[in-house]
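Sorry to interrupt, but I need a hand with the structure work. Leave the record below and I will have a look:
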Amino acid sequence: MMQLRSGALNGAVSLKLSEGLTRFPEEIFELADTLEILDLSQNKLTELPADFGRLKKLRIFFCSDNLFTVFPEVLGDCPLLDIVGFKANKIKTVPALSLNPNVRWLILTDNCINKLPKEIGQCSRMQKLMLAGNQLSELPDELSNCRNLSLLRISANRLTKLPEWLLTMPKLSWLAFSGNLFWIRPDVTSLPSIGWYELDIQNALGEGASGIIYKGIHNSKTGKKDVAVKIFKGSVTSDGLPEDEMNAFIAAGAHPGLVNLIGSISGHPDGKIGLVMDLILKRFYNLGKPPSLESCTRDIFAQGTTISIAQVLKIAGTIASVAHQLHSNGIIHGDLYAHNTLVDDEGNTLFGDFGAASFYDSTDIGTALALERIEVSAFGYMLEDLLDLCSETNEHATIIKLKQLRDASIAPDVLTRPGFQYLNDELIKLQSI
């Protein structure tokens, strides 16, 4: 704030202020000619000024972890606004005027919203809509007009059904809906219980939205074993509820392309839930990185990354096989991405992160077919990424066949897409050539 008031930040393109603010600093308007990214998260704001639209160049605005109860109408006054994040406020009301038709990525996770206005259907650029952890009992039919919608998170709401129009959206590829009233609550087989006292927790290996993974040692009657231990945070994430993630991971079953589960944790001192898994060998690494603010729904990759056609076939084949098993068990993963895929230099593959997974009734044939083919679209985009990384020439016969599978997987007509069984069979054929 001192820098802002002194003029030291004049000409800034990006600004982040997290200083317990209770009012919007008027000094920010001094940056109106240049400011494109504004982050006012983790303050105590309840409103924005009526002339907020003076920030004509603002593209990205984060205002999470504040005290808003109404999604501000003035957001509709910013002509270039592209990404808006108001996660973890106390928002109950979303006025029609607050929905800027230019927005491509809207985050309203973990609020108290019980209704969305029909005007959301005017957001024709919308690709990513995050609504998990609210009180929605229905989605407006007008949302079906958002034909560019690719990723939708509606977990942990009060929806009584999955709208039929949602299953026909031409670009929808990543869908999470667990924890609603219509959701199928699975009968998950219990894992062996591992007492907290049996675990020697060591260094953290990684952290995601739902929890932290540690390296540990399991001291059992048969000896000591290096393991990975995931401790869930226990609060709603952008994808859904941690207990739903754990149940989906357990119900997925054993597969060479999934990390092997050893047991579930009991007796955590803070009452948290967790899983004990095989420790992944150091030779494995993340195939991709999560989408950037610019790429929105598409993964990004380290510059210079290349893979062979053999690696493409091995990775794609494993993912198709895992996805086929998941859908055979009535599970949609919801986050089928390269950044959730671990590979080694030979193309051996481990797929994970069930944070967005949802159960569905596999006996409801129409819905089951559509949900699988929504996920097939995500596979198609991942296959496209693999082909972009491939070092082989476009004239390679296998490349031509893979492009045909890619095109079929992302066809706009959802039900014309192939299922994972077909994709798996075709990839096995290609590997045998």
In short: The CA atoms of residues 364 and 419 lie 16 Å apart. Residues 365-389 form the longest helix (25 residues). Residues 193-278 form a domain with the Phosphorylase Kinase; domain 1 fold (CATH 3.30.200.20). The helical segments are 2-6, 242-251, 309-328, 365-389, 397-409, 420-432.
